[in-house]
Amino acid sequence: MAYTSNPYLPKVRRLAVNDVEVRGLSCTLVARKYGVHRSTIGRWVKRASPDRKEFIQTLLSRPKSHPRQLDLQIVARIIKLRKELGRCAPVLHEYLKKEGIKVSLSSVARTLRRYGLTRKPRRPIFDGKNPRRPLATRPGELVQADTMHILRKDYSRYYIYAVIDLYSRFGYAEYKQRLRQNDSLQVISHAKDYCGFNFTMVQTDNGPEFKTIFKYQLKNKSISLRHSRVRRPNDNAHVERFIRTLQEECFKGKMPREYGINNRLKEYLSYYNYSRLHLGINLKTPAQMLQRS
Q1: E strand residue ranges, the chain
Q2: What is the reported pLDDT for 1?
Q3: Residues 247, 253: Cα–Cα separation, whole Å
Q4: pLDDT at res. 119
Q5: What pLDDT score does 125 carry?
């Protein structure tokens, strides 16, 4: 990076050189005119082009070498390992240690960044036009949705969608084999039918199952989609707590069996919505909150 970002300096240097070479002024007078040392004017004259027409660009302030810089062979080995294995810096660092190459973990990570071998940070899915969060003063005004990822024995996954209304705490959950935007829309439709009231806004995280297609499908049903902030799980605190309740009370803290899981969820949701007392709604049930509205 250059020591200055002033865009007018290259032109100023050329004008100063012209004062010396064309107008015949001394370096001392030109230095006083432009507020620099006379030795600086001398360096500008040496760097000027023969025709004196090109601007004299600002040089980088980065040093050309460093006494503690990595050996080029080590850099080449880091790059080669990254391309062969595709692993992260700590794993590559361990491989280098086994090969007898002494290099710090930070140097490995810095080398990967410098040569563009790291993944770009994940960006939020929404386009910056996130709707304002409503106060949830009536059923369906704000509904939160999220997914629970469960590993099978072969390390593949299946999913449980969780949906909860913030006003009444009326909850819905459904098992799905895949994580797709069309499945997300289907779950929202089933949840709306199960709850018995219309949804105005659905709030989700930035997962791949809640992307642009899901947003426009909801829009066709007159439902707005709102995304939570990146790395802010508290924005979806109600549905996160609902998922924890499912894990603790419905599945008893164990890995749920995939066979018959929807029937198990259906039985628990009947208890959750019609019999279970909730502290968040003054020890009432979600069904009682709907009767009040």
Answers
A1: 143-151, 157-165, 171-176, 201-204, 224-227
A2: 46
A3: 5
A4: 77
A5: 52
Give me the helices (H) in 135-203, please: 181-195
Which residues are CB-contacts of 56 (< 8 A; sequence separation ≥ 6)?
10, 13, 14, 17, 44, 47, 48
Query: Quick one: which of 217, 143, 209, 214 has its CA closest to 177?
Result: 209
Inter-residue contact 169 to 286 (CB < 8 Å):
yes
Q: Where are the domains of the chain?
A: 1-62, 72-114, 143-292
CA 240 to chain centre: 19
Other C-beta atoms closer than 10 Å to the C-beta of 69 total: 11
Q: In what order do the strands lie in the sheet with 143-151?
A: 171-176, 157-165, 143-151, 201-204, 224-227
Question: Collapsing DSSP states into helix, strand and coil, what is residue 141?
Answer: coil
Rounded CA separation 16/21 (Å)? 9
Identify the pLDDT of residue 130.
87
Give dist(CA 86, CA 92) in Å, integer: 9
The residues of the chain scoring below 50 in pLDDT are 1
Q: Report which secondary-structure segment, H or E, holds 213.
A: helix 212-220
Separate counts of helices (H) and strands (E) for the chain: 11, 5
* pLDDT tens digit sequence for 55-108: 988 888 777 777 888 899 999 999 999 999 989 999 999 999 999 999 999 999
C-alpha–C-alpha distance, residues 178 and 7, integer Å: 54
Mean pLDDT over each residue of the chain, to the nearest integer: 90
What CATH number should be reported for the domain whose range is 1-62?
1.10.10
pLDDT of residue 127: 56
For 143-292, CATH number? Answer: 3.30.420.10
